[in-house]
Amino acid sequence: MAKCVVLHSLSKYSVVHEPVLRELLTGKPDLFAVTGVDCQAWEDAMDWLCVDLDVSNALPGAFCNTTSHPGEALPDVVAFAEQWCSLNGWPVDVRVVEI
Length: 99
Known about the structure:
This protein is of the alpha/beta class. The chain contains three helices and four strands, in the order βαβαβαβ. A four-stranded parallel sheet has the order 3-2-1-4. Helix 1 (18-26) crosses helix 2. It comes from Uliginosibacterium flavum. Pfam families: DUF7684.
């Protein structure tokens, strides 16, 4: 799985999307960046999911850095994620997911 995940949301967050977030977390990304519709709610959902999975021991140590980018274009957020990789000394490893 990619070091950085960029989610381009096409719809508002709903609890029905939680399985998708769980699947993304299993790849242990270092960065989860969101742009698009309701991106701040998507970011909050990922934050709370990490806490829940860690505390419940379902996925101990569940954690990723999260950012939301309201009003930013997808290519700009992808460039941010690529820069994140570079600053950490990693090869560019960005996965873009649209929901």
